[in-house]
Write a structure and sequence with these properties.
Helix content: 25-40%
Distance between the termini: 46 Å
Low-confidence stretches: none
Mean pLDDT: 90
Length: 264
């Protein structure tokens, strides 16, 4: 096994379990304790793991997201660049689209200019943005708001009714806002929203994840998809993505788009 592959596996195991042991890793990979120590030192220097006595733990584990209002303000320039890029390059006339909730998805909605599109969303904010754009003739088509329980603090609908309604559609594209990508895990902090996004993936021919660089190689609460279920990732052009993450994208045929940064 190549050193880089072993280090990737060590990092992924730490992310999944919360801690790894040097002695157990040495036995598992049939190498010396000193070799594992060097691996952990390397991962620590890259800020991918934190050394502890006898092993290592993730730098960030089970990240819980801030409130909606705080999230909306964070990394705004990157989110604006990503949302605008998707609207300009990946949304076309006559598309049938699912859009999840999220601050980047709201910027995407505010940038769509396509004609005769059908858009289904569970986001109250996104539905309102799209309605206003159609009223101003900046885009055309239909917007369908999923029913269900309103989550007032997050401005979306969820629950069984929303999922059942979503299952009746077939989309040619789905655009998802996420909380984290770690190894093969595509994650969100909210289980209910994760079920919505998983259903969107199941009913779409093409699935694109939008994420700024702060969400790579960290973990959130709930894994709603495997990387192999995703077709594309859009991030900002100067995002620093670990080589092992890029290799995983390539191995799973995930196209990565880098959005030029906008002046905010």
């Amino acid at each position: 096994m190549l050193t880089s592959e072993r280090q990737r596996l060590i990092k992924e195991e730490a992310m999944k379990t919360g801690e790894v042991s040097i002695s157990e890793l040495a036995k598992k990979y049939n190498v010396s304790i000193e070799t594992i120590r060097r691996d952990i030192n390397f991962l620590s220097e890259k800020n991918l793991l934190k050394k502890v006595r006898g092993g290592a733990v993730p730098i960030q584990f089970a990240v819980r997201e801030d409130t909606y209002d705080i999230r909306h303000r964070k990394n705004h320039a990157a989110k604006a660049s990503i949302g605008d890029f998707i609207a300009a390059n990946l949304v076309e006339d006559n598309d049938t689209i699912a859009i999840s909730s999220g601050s980047t998805m709201e910027i995407l909605a505010a940038s769509i200019t396509a004609r005769n599109v059908l858009i289904v969303t569970n986001s109250i904010k996104i539905a309102s943005i799209l309605q206003n754009r159609m009223r101003q003739n900046l885009m055309s088509g239909e917007v369908i708001m999923l029913g269900g329980i309103i989550r007032a603090d997050e401005h979306y609908t969820g629950g069984t009714l929303a999922v059942d309604m979503l299952k009746k559609f077939t989309f040619n594209k789905a655009f998802l806002g996420i909380s984290a990508i770690s190894g093969r895990d595509v994650m969100t902090s909210n289980i209910e929203e994760g079920v919505i996004m998983s259903t969107m993936i199941d009913h779409a021919r093409f699935c694109c994840v939008a994420t700024d660089s702060s969400k790579f190689d960290v973990r959130s609460t709930y894994t709603f998809a495997d990387l192999a279920e995703i077709d594309a990732v859009v991030t900002e052009e100067n995002a620093d993505i670990a080589e092992e993450t890029l290799n995983l994208f390539e191995a799973n045929s995930v196209t990565i788009y880098r959005a030029p940064m906008k002046e905010i």
